[in-house]
Amino acid sequence: ACAMNIGGMDAEGKDMMNDLSSKNDELNFLAVYDPLTKLRNRHHITDVFSDYEKGTKPFCVILGDIDDFKRINDTYSHDCGDKVLVTISEIIRKNIGDKGVVCRWGGEEILIILSGKSEECLELTERIRLEIQNQQMSFGIKQINVTMTFGFTDYSEAMNIEKLVSIADKRLYEGK
Q1: How many angstroms separate the CA atoms of 174 and 157, rounded?
Q2: What is the model's pLDDT at position 5?
Q3: Buried b / exposed e across 82-92, counting CB within 10 Å, b at 16+?
Q4: Which of 58, 79, 98, 170 is exposed most, by the fewest CB atoms within 10 A?
Q5: With contact defined as beta carbons under 8 Å apart, do 162 and 49 qualify?
Q6: Which CA distances in Å does 138 have to 72, 81, 141, 145, 146?
């Protein structure tokens, strides 16, 4: 039988435990968040859906897509595209704060679930859209302006979030 006295662990053992704890934290982060944008990932957001669906408070689902993102990647590089994604994610996250949840839905699409009535959520979405449009992004010596199109739905339009996302996606497509 082998017993380990953790309290009496030597420095090397404590370092190994700290490394293991650090790796565990990193894996937990990657399970929930997108490593590039630091937004929640699509896989994890389904857990959040059920919390909103079970609740009684109004909420809105917004799906945003960066306009001409392929052109940005093709013209300036994928590093530039990554910088655009990170900058836009920071703008959205800062504006949403604790009013909702932001998720990297896929590629250049970002899903937002906002607590609140339609009017206030729509107003916040427009403020985000304008801030993105007015943001000057630098990449090397180039100045890049980016716009984003949003599809908007509110909780009264469907009984589940998957349906709301589908409606938002359709409206996003119409907005393009």
Answers
A1: 17
A2: 54
A3: ebbbebbbebb
A4: 98
A5: yes
A6: 12, 11, 7, 9, 11
Q: Token pair for residue 17?
A: 């435990």
1 pLDDT above the threshold of 60: no
Residue 59: how many CB atoms within 10 A of its CB? 22
Structure tokens at 7: 């309290």
Average pLDDT, stretch 60-65? 97
Q: State how far the Cα of 176 lies from the Cα of 173, in Å rounded to an integer.
A: 5
For residues 65 and 110, give the distance between their C-alpha atoms in angstroms, rounded to a whole number. Answer: 6
Phi, psi torsion values for 106, nearest 5 degrees: 170, 145
pTM of the full predicted structure?
0.83
Q: Give the Cβ contact number of residue 22 at 10 Å.
A: 10
| 25 pLDDT above the threshold of 90 | no
Q: What are 68-113's pLDDT values in tens digits?
A: 999 999 999 999 999 999 999 999 999 999 999 999 999 999 999 9
Please compute the mean of the pLDDT values over residues 120-142 and round it to a whole number: 94
